[in-house]
């Protein structure tokens, strides 16, 4: 805790003065361009990975970068998605998984989570990804886990489109969806290409979006 407090004091003394005008402008207003949904893993820092300043990202973090399908009992993730899309008018939503994800590893390797019932219940929102992943052949456990991470990103892209605010924004062509997987060791990102239904290197394909394949047709 001492290091955390010392970090704040350093921020107050060094970082804040450099951005004083920014924070003054943000004191009563925010206008983020994107909603970034990532894992709570301590190794993933959305603002660092994307090099964004305060006020530029609206961030949701949870175990497994999960977005529950819309239901009659909305939780914190649902409320945050709705606020970002309906109130803040974000133009892009990024769902970002990552390598060596503990949540996806537990699912892919069938680890018993009975001693963590809340975690076990939460990860049921990745069941569709688990079923798809289990139906495929994998050369080894490492590949099985990596595949689970990707399938989960695809599953959560589908889940988020059950949210009314997202469905409306997509139908009015004012929202883009992105599915990313961040590799911790190399610092690279793979992006889900909705047109080809494959993950590609974001650095080589910066305009990649997930929307074409994940699109839900109008009734």
UniProtKB/TrEMBL annotation:
Traced from the root, the source organism's taxonomic lineage reads: Bacteria, Pseudomonadati, Pseudomonadota, Betaproteobacteria, Burkholderiales
**Stated role:** Reversible hydration of carbon dioxide.
Keywords (A to Z) from UniProt: Lyase, Metal-binding, Zinc
- What catalytic reaction does the record list? hydrogencarbonate + H(+) = CO2 + H2O
Q: Which SMART domains match?
A: Pro_CA (SM00947)
Any Gene Ontology biological process: carbon utilization
Q: Where is the signal peptide?
A: none
Q: Which family does it belong to?
A: Belongs to the beta-class carbonic anhydrase family.
Which protein is depicted?
Carbonic anhydrase
UniProt-listed Enzyme Commission number(s):
4.2.1.1
Q: How is the cofactor bound?
A: Binds 1 zinc ion per subunit.
- PROSITE patterns hit by this protein: PROK_CO2_ANHYDRASE_1, PROK_CO2_ANHYDRASE_2
Record-listed Zn(2+) binding positions: 39, 41, 98, 101
Named from the GO MF annotations, one term is: zinc ion binding
Q: Does the keyword Glycosyltransferase apply?
A: no
The cofactors it requires, by name, are:
Zn(2+)
């Amino acid at each position: 805790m001492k290091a955390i407090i010392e970090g704040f004091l350093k921020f107050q003394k060094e970082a804040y003065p450099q951005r004083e005008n920014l924070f003054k402008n943000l004191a009563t207003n925010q206008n983020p361009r994107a909603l970034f949904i990532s894992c709570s893993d301590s190794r993933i820092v959305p603002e660092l990975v994307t090099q964004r300043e305060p006020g530029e990202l609206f961030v949701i973090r949870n175990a497994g970068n999960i977005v529950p399908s819309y239901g009659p009992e909305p939780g914190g993730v649902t409320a945050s998605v709705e606020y970002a899309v309906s109130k803040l008018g974000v133009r892009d939503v990024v769902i970002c998984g990552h390598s060596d994800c503990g949540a996806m590893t537990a699912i892919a390797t069938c680890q018993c989570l009975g001693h963590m019932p809340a975690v076990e219940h939460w990860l049921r929102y990745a069941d569709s990804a688990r079923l798809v992943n289990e139906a495929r052949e994998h050369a080894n456990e490492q590949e099985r886990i990596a595949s689970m991470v990707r399938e989960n990103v695809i599953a959560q892209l589908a889940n988020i489109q059950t949210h009314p605010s997202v469905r409306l924004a997509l139908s009015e062509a004012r929202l883009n969806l992105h599915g990313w997987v961040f590799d911790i060791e190399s610092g690279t990102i793979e992006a889900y290409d909705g047109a080809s239904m494959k993950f590609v290197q974001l650095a080589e394909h910066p305009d990649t979006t997930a929307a074409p394949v994940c699109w839900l047709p109008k009734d």
